[in-house]
Specification:
Layout: E1 5-8, H1 13-21, E2 27-28, H2 43-59, E3 65-76, E4 79-81, H3 87-97, E5 101-112, E6 118-129, H4 134-142, E7 163-167, H5 170-174, H6 178-186
Parallel strand pairs: 1-2, 1-3
Antiparallel strand pairs: 3-4, 3-5, 5-6, 6-7
Helix pairs in contact: 3-4
The structure holds thymidine-5'-triphosphate.
Length: about 200
């Protein structure tokens, strides 16, 4: 099996770090896709639509590669929360998440630009939040951390203090479910060895 060129279609430093930790060489190419979704069939469908869009947006720039696109969303009571647009949205999102359990879904799409074959899969984890007061939310929003994060928090950062428990893969919450990606790459004949210990560190 020939070595495949692997391209991560993402500007996310978290995705880059998690992919690097898998131990495979890769390049990063970014694009500026429109992240609005016209219609969807739940959070997995929503995240997969955007993951495909991100992969397809860079696919034309590489002729023989596996291009990886990903998108992470938070879902609670049927509402999908992406990255908050501003402070008010971050505050409102965190108020909704307080004291409740929500789902974090990452859609991954891997596109083979040599053949046009696309493989995709979504991973889901459940995150239970402590109940937090408005003052605590205000202080967290003022830290700036919520702005480029789905659901307006980062479990691996200061936002970890808001989290009571994570059920499922932590790397999925941070933006790249590595077990799922290993499976998708294996479908293209790229075998990535499993880590010695579960990937639970940010
Ligand atoms: C819930 C949660 C999300 N996130 C991040 C993961 C994703 O990077 C981000 C969701 O935004 P995404 O749109 O999925 O990704 P992105 O804009 O960061 O990068 P790109 O589109 O270029 O690939 O939220 C955390 O880092 N920690 C968390 O606890």
């Amino acid at each position: 099996m020939r070595a495949r060129r692997i391209v991560l279609a993402s500007g996310s430093p978290r995705r880059r770090e998690l992919l690097a930790a898998m131990g495979i060489p890769f390049e990063v190419l970014t694009s500026d896709v429109d992240e609005t979704v016209a219609g969807h069939d739940g959070p997995a469908d929503f995240a997969l639509q955007l993951a495909r869009r991100k992969a397809q947006a860079v696919a034309g720039r590489v002729t023989d590669a596996l291009v990886i696109g990903g998108d992470t969303v938070v879902e609670l009571d049927g509402t999908i929360f992406g990255k908050p647009a501003d402070e008010a949205a971050a505050f409102a999102t965190l108020g909704r998440l307080s004291g409740r359990a929500h789902r974090v879904v990452t859609g991954l799409a891997v596109l083979d630009t040599a053949t046009g074959v696309l493989r995709q899969e979504a991973a889901t984890s459940t995150v239970r939040m402590r109940a937090f007061a408005d003052d605590e939310i205000r202080a967290y929003v003022a830290s700036g951390e919520p702005f480029d994060k789905a659901g307006a928090y980062a479990v691996q950062g200061l936002g970890g203090r808001l989290v009571a428990a994570v059920d499922g893969d932590l790397d999925n919450v941070i933006g790249l479910p590595t077990r799922t990606l290993r499976r998708l790459l294996a479908g293209f004949g790229v075998e990535v060895s499993a880590p010695q210990a579960p990937a639970t560190q940010a």
